[in-house]
Design a protein that fits this description.
The complex is a heterodimer of chains A (116) and B (111). Chain A is an all-beta fold. Chain A is 0% helix and 53% strand. Helices cover 0% and strands 47% of the residues of chain B. The interface between A and B is medium-sized, with 26 and 22 residues.
């Protein structure tokens, strides 16, 4: 398996533009997570899905952020409009309950977003 | 949510053991203790987890205090590749998936 795939790896955009980050989880995994990492706040959970359904979006900072999971193999995180303070590394992770109690999360390589 | 406390940074000499502490005084009886690490410019990766008993795997050992209010991740022989940020995390048992990563401990390995 190729692991969790994220695209793009780097994104530079101007303030006010729409940004869409993409994630392909590991095949067979039924949980998908979006995280944001900054120097100031560390690694923060934004939202997570179970079987394509959003379970907890309490970490989404504001209405400018939205996430969707139209099917088991694809998810997007959208920021509209983007602001400089959104600059961060965004990670996607997936995991599975099928293997038992333990819920190891597998992380993608991240998308480094810079908003000018 | 129960929280963890870790030192911001630690240093170790190469090929020496490293003991990374974590305090979790408000841990509940159903919380698993997880450790992840994040190598530079990569996403976090799983290291080890446990509930009550000490655990060993190919990467590390996890020593859990008898009262479960603290734990220690042990790297038996630190290598340069072990330089990373180490996160100690609590997670509910039974498959509840939400975990909270803190700032972690940045481990520097000195050649």
């Amino acid at each position: 398996d190729a692991g969790v795939i994220q695209s793009p790896r780097h994104e530079v955009t101007e303030m006010g533009q729409e940004v869409t980050l993409r994630c392909k989880p590991i095949s067979g995994h039924d949980y998908l997570f979006w995280y944001r990492q900054t120097m100031m706040r560390g690694l923060e959970l934004l939202i997570y899905f179970n079987n394509n359904v959003p379970i907890d979006d309490s970490g989404m900072p504001e209405d400018r952020f939205s996430a969707k999971m139209p099917n088991a193999s694809f998810s997007t995180l959208k920021i509209q409009p983007s602001e400089p303070r959104d600059s961060a590394v965004y990670f996607c992770a997936s995991s599975s309950r099928a293997s038992g109690v333990y819920n190891e999360q597998f992380f993608g390589p991240g998308t480094r977003l810079t908003v000018l | 949510d129960a929280k963890t406390t870790q030192p911001n940074s630690m240093e170790s000499n190469e090929e020496e053991p490293v003991h990374l502490p974590c305090n979790h005084s408000t841990i509940s009886g159903t919380d698993y203790i997880h450790w992840y690490r994040q190598l530079p410019s990569q996403g976090p990766e799983y290291v080890i987890h446990g509930l009550t008993s000490n655990v060993n795997n190919r990467m590390a050992s996890l020593a859990i205090a008898e009262d479960r209010k603290s734990s220690t991740l042990i790297l038996h022989r630190a290598t340069l590749r072990d330089a990373a940020v180490y996160y100690c995390i609590l997670d509910y048992s039974g498959g509840y998936q939400k975990v909270t990563f803190g700032i972690g401990t940045k481990l520097q390995v000195i050649p």
